[in-house]
Write a structure and sequence with these properties.
It is a single chain. By secondary structure, the chain is mainly α. The protein has one domain (6-325). It is 71% helix and 1% strand. It is built from eleven helices and two strands; from the N terminus they run ααβααααβααααα. The chain has helices spanning 6-22, 33-59, 74-99, 116-121, 131-155, 157-163, 178-205, 210-223, 232-251, 253-305, 309-325; strands at residues 67-68, 167-168. Strands 1-2 form a two-stranded parallel sheet. α7 packs across α10 (253-305).
Length: 338
């Protein structure tokens, strides 16, 4: 398949998404064109990610030969943030509400009317406690996940080097700045959790055992990161996707979205730190260190404010799973899915 122009690429994405949205009209009598429009919008980012995977991995084969990623300009990074928010967040979010006939002022008389909270809950996107409580829980967990990430990074340098040996991305983030790190991490964390641990995992879990659903969504999450050209960007996101699926099941997607954004700040900040400090001197080092210290301070405050309830829920759930493996009786968990 020849490489596509920008217009051909966008047209193919729209065709894939809208075909997926309107196909149910062929066999579901209760399906309406309003729901088809909503599903088409919701499927658009998945169609884009699938096409990106096909073009970069299947056609170009970036994982199967040595790939050097060119640096991305600062303007392109800012455009990427806007694109991520609009195409991976706002449009599929609007599609979800349209799909459930929950958009105020745009009701379909042929479809069952739903409230916005019910539409979000149908995809596990509603907060388990409250928006504020779930956000604090995500912040409270950040310090533990970030510490685990740093320890794992230190212990796996040899394996990481082997998994990264088929590519070079050292210059990809050369033009990044601290505001870009923060906004890109927030945009990626919120949209990826919405799409993968919210929409995709919920849809799969209704059709197969939860473990199988978690594995499949983690595999999809790993494959969409394969465009960086190294196996480290497949193995790492797969493990991360499994962990976030567990947290989402017990505490909800709002928690994982906040947690994911914080982990991305640490991951991206540590990966660009040497070059960023070399280019910006002491001010660059102070800016990066200040951001990380602020996140740690916020996490400590959230840990106290929530009385570490998120930690206790996950710890109790881990003990419950161990008891089940040993044949013990299951214990009730506060954060169990509804």
């Amino acid at each position: 398949m020849p490489l596509l122009t920008g217009d051909q690429y966008d047209l193919l994405v729209l065709a894939l998404a809208w075909c997926g949205g309107f196909l149910p009209l062929l066999w579901r009598k209760e399906w309406t064109w309003v729901q088809a429009v909503g599903l088409g919008l919701l499927l658009t980012p998945f169609a884009r990610m699938a096409l990106d995977f096909y073009l970069t991995v299947v056609v170009s084969g970036v994982l199967f030969h040595y790939t050097v990623l060119e640096p991305v300009s600062r303007a392109a990074l800012w455009n990427g943030i806007v694109t991520r928010v609009v195409e991976f967040g706002l449009l599929p979010g609007a599609g979800l509400l349209i799909l459930h006939n929950a958009v105020p002022g745009l009701p379909s008389r042929r479809a069952v009317r739903q409230r916005v909270p019910d539409a979000l809950a149908a995809h596990s996107l509603a907060p388990r406690a409250s928006w504020r409580r779930d956000a604090l829980r995500g912040l409270a967990l950040f310090v533990f996940i970030a510490a685990a990430y740093v320890v794992a990074l230190a212990l796996s340098q040899t394996a990481l080097a082997a998994l990264s040996s088929n590519g070079d991305e050292s210059q990809y983030w050369r033009n990044v700045t601290v505001p870009i790190i923060l906004l890109l991490s927030a945009a990626a964390g919120l949209t990826e959790e919405f799409l993968f641990r919210g929409v995709l995992l919920t849809w799969l879990a209704k059709r197969m055992p939860w473990i199988a659903a978690a594995l499949l969504q983690a595999l999809a999450f790993a494959l969409v990161h394969s465009g960086y050209g190294t196996w480290a960007h497949v193995v790492g996101p797969f493990a991360f996707g499994l962990g976030m699926a567990w947290v989402a099941r017990r505490l909800g997607v709002v928690v994982t979205a906040i947690l994911h954004a914080g982990v991305d700040v640490v991951s991206l900040g540590l990966s660009v730190a040497p070059d960023y400090v070399a280019a910006n001197g002491p001010l660059g080092a102070a800016a990066l260190a200040g951001v990380l210290l602020l996140l740690v301070a916020l996490s400590a405050w959230a840990l106290v404010a929530t009385r570490a309830d998120a930690v206790r829920i996950l710890w109790d759930d881990l003990l419950r799973m161990l008891r089940l493996r040993r044949g013990g009786a299951p214990a009730p968990t506060e954060g169990a899915p509804r």
